[in-house]
């Protein structure tokens, strides 16, 4: 096998066609360098130079080997750089699960932009899934990080709350409540409702919260995702409770009303394994925390600006 060091010596000499100048550039004596060139020629069975007194001229074989050696050396140097990135954790792959509302809030896109700016060589696999499915996948090691609504105590999982936002009443433009400035519990009694697909436990909690507030909802539609809920509300098919972050993507024909007497909120959390083997899960979780903090501050600034405009 050819020693890469010999190829480096050969390239240094072949480029200037002078042993003395190449030896000076390499920081070695001429005699050892000449011996190394002879050794390379013997090993390859090629005459790489025509030697004329103190001059060297590359042969055809020397021209060929110079081209090939440059490519080999460049690839070897790239391999060293790639290895250094792997050692620093700058490259690799990570798998992230998320609930779709993480996109609606803007938290996940902002966090991914921040992470990519620091680690552009890391490949990111994104999977949309329910909170329950993500929890199972993180426990099995199929996901490195989950972004979920619901967390339950698991000794093998670490979770961190990202945000908690109120649920607001979404009303279609043609609904009888669309022109009401405030909405009371009696206004909602018996009204048609659209809910996100709920498991039995969540459905009971929703009905119970409404009953305690003083009204009984008539659930007409179970929708699979938030965009479907908004579309049905806009079409006048019923009312819905949606997180405040939908203000960012509210379609024409849908308005939101605060219900101070109905204190329902929705949270967003990250989950990862306590014995996390991924070098990136904790870092992406930190990016999500920072993104949510920044988005919260921006929303607060907009609200203050809006109140100032109203007073003016």
Strand-helix topology:
Blueprint: H1 4-16, H2 19-26, H3 30-44, E1 49-52, E2 55-58, H4 60-88, E3 91-98, H5 101-104, H6 107-118, E4 121-128, H7 131-140, E5 145-148, E6 157-172, H8 185-188, E7 192-196, H9 200-213, E8 218-223, H10 226-234, E9 240-243, E10 254-257, E11 265-273, H11 281-311
Parallel strand pairs: 3-4, 3-5, 7-8
Antiparallel strand pairs: 1-2, 5-11, 6-9, 6-10, 6-11
Structure characterization notes:
There is one protein chain. This protein has 312 residues and is of the alpha/beta class. It is rod-shaped and about 105 Å long. It has helices spanning 4-16, 19-26, 30-44, 60-88, 101-104, 107-118, 131-140, 185-188, 200-213, 226-234, 281-311; strands spanning 49-52, 55-58, 91-98, 121-128, 145-148, 157-172, 192-196, 218-223, 240-243, 254-257, 265-273. It is built from 11 helices and 11 strands. The model has no long low-confidence stretch (mean pLDDT 87). Helix 9 (200-213) links the parallel strand 7 and strand 8 (218-223).
- Nearest-angstrom radius of gyration? 33 Å
- Quaternary structure annotation: single chain
Helix content: 40-55%
Helix and strand succession?
A: HHHEEHEHHEHEEHEHEHEEEH
Strand proportion: 15-25%
Outline, from the CA principal axes?
rod-shaped
- What number of structural domains do the residues give? 2
Instruction: Report the total helices.
Output: 11
CATH 2nd-level architecture of the largest domain: 3-Layer(aba) Sandwich
The largest pleated sheet is described as: 7 strands, mixed
CATH class of the largest domain reads Alpha Beta
CATH topology of the largest domain: D-Maltodextrin-Binding Protein, domain 2
Structural class: alpha/beta
Mean pLDDT: 87
Separation of the first and last Cα atoms: 81 Å
Low-confidence stretches: none
How many beta-strand segments?
Answer: 11
């Amino acid at each position: 096998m050819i020693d890469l060091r010999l190829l480096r010596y050969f390239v240094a000499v072949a480029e200037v066609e002078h042993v003395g100048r190449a030896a000076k550039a390499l920081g070695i004596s001429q005699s050892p360098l000449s011996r190394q060139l002879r050794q390379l020629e013997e090993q390859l069975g090629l005459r790489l130079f025509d030697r004329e007194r103190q001059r060297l001229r590359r042969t055809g074989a020397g021209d060929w080997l110079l081209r090939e050696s440059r490519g080999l050396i460049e690839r070897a140097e790239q391999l060293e750089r790639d290895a250094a990135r792997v050692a620093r954790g700058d490259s690799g792959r990570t798998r992230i699960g998320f609930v779709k509302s993480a996109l609606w809030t803007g938290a996940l896109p902002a966090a991914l932009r921040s992470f990519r700016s620091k680690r552009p060589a890391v490949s990111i696999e994104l999977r949309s899934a329910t909170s329950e499915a993500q929890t199972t996948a993180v426990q099995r090691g199929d996901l490195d990080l989950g972004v979920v609504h619901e967390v339950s105590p698991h000794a093998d999982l670490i979770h961190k709350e990202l945000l908690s936002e109120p649920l607001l009443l979404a009303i279609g433009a043609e609904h009888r409540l669309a022109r009401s400035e405030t909405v009371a519990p009696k206004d909602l009694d018996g009204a048609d409702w659209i809910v996100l697909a709920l498991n039995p436990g969540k459905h009971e909690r929703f009905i119970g919260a409404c009953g305690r507030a003083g009204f009984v909802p008539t659930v007409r539609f179970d929708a699979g995702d938030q965009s479907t809920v908004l579309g049905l509300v806009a079409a006048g098919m019923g009312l819905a409770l949606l997180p405040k972050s939908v203000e960012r993507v509210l379609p024409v024909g849908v308005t939101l009303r605060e219900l101070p007497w109905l204190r329902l909120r929705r949270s967003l959390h990250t989950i990862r394994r306590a014995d996390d083997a991924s070098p990136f899960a904790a870092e992406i979780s930190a990016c999500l925390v920072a993104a949510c903090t920044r988005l919260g501050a921006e929303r607060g600034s907009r609200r203050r600006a809006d109140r100032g405009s109203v007073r003016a």
